[in-house]
């Protein structure tokens, strides 16, 4: 049993209108000092067996080609073996 | 024999029927294609219509890109077959890397629905040869994620190579870089357009009939090919 966590964020240079709207809302609700908000996605993939070798390579490929769009997004993949 | 233009239906496509109707009005034969079938039924060109394929889940067009029909569309497009992606179809073409860049959430965060004035800037693509250079047209625009983005180098290359097919006039409805409403690939056979020419082919239902030349263009380009 393993868990793979993929975080996907818009690249820093890509405008994030959703993040900007959330920043406005945080300020309206009284949070001071908000300079920026960026909104992203997190995928939690649970799998049987271990994640290594060709399977890990396939996960990297899928994170790069399906879960994220390399034109506008960066991703970070993390493998957690035996998640509690 | 009339030329066959395929229109793909994905789960969540909305404008496939209007696209097929536009093809018929322009004088072509519209052929329905199904997302789950890689058989293109011997069509001469393909339209990827607007809508919300796969519910726009993940990213617009991200899942449609991997539909079986797209394997055939990408292969044939790379061999020169004309392909027009409208709205969601444009998003699918970008996700498929047939066109550079990506389409992101409108900068206003609002879904925009309006009759939009455009300037046609490229009249050598398979889908715009029936326009005059610099011609201004009005066709419907309706999108929530229509902001065209690409890095500066890509944008400069698109401009230098004359691959900006159409630009927004009067106002930029979605924050697209450099007011870009549509682009084409290097060869000019693959065109992506955010506004909807297929909704402007009859005076009864459209604001104009300015959308027709997109469809007559491809039929003429196929005859001359």
Q: Could you characterize what this model shows?
A:
The complex is a heterodimer of chains A (84) and B (225). By secondary structure, chain A is an alpha+beta fold. Chain A has a single domain (2-81), classed as 2-Layer Sandwich (Mth169, Chain: A). Helices cover 32% and strands 31% of the residues of chain A. Chain A has two helices and three strands, in the order βαβαβ. Chain A is elongated. Chain B contains five helices and eleven strands. By secondary structure, chain B is of the alpha/beta class. Classes of the chains: A alpha+beta (84), B alpha/beta (225).
User: Helical content of chain A, roughly?
Assistant: 25-40%
**Strand percent estimate of chain A:** 25-35%
Mean pLDDT of chain A: 94
In the CATH hierarchy, what is the superfamily of chain B?
A: Class I glutamine amidotransferase (GATase) domain
Mass-distribution shape of chain A:
elongated
| Uncertain residue segments of chain A | none
Span of the ends, CA to CA of chain A = 10 Å
Report the end-to-end length of chain B measured between terminal Cα atoms.
Answer: 15 Å
Named at the architecture level, the CATH assignment of chain A is 2-Layer Sandwich
In total, how many beta strands of chain A? 3
Q: Which fold name is given in CATH as the topology of chain B?
A: Rossmann fold
Helical content band of chain B: 10-25%
Secondary-structure element series of chain A = EHEHE
Name of the level-1 CATH class of chain A: Alpha Beta
Backbone CA Rg of chain B = 16 Å
Sum this structure up briefly.
The complex is a heterodimer of chains A (84) and B (225). With 84 residues, chain A is an alpha+beta fold. Chain A has two helices and three strands.
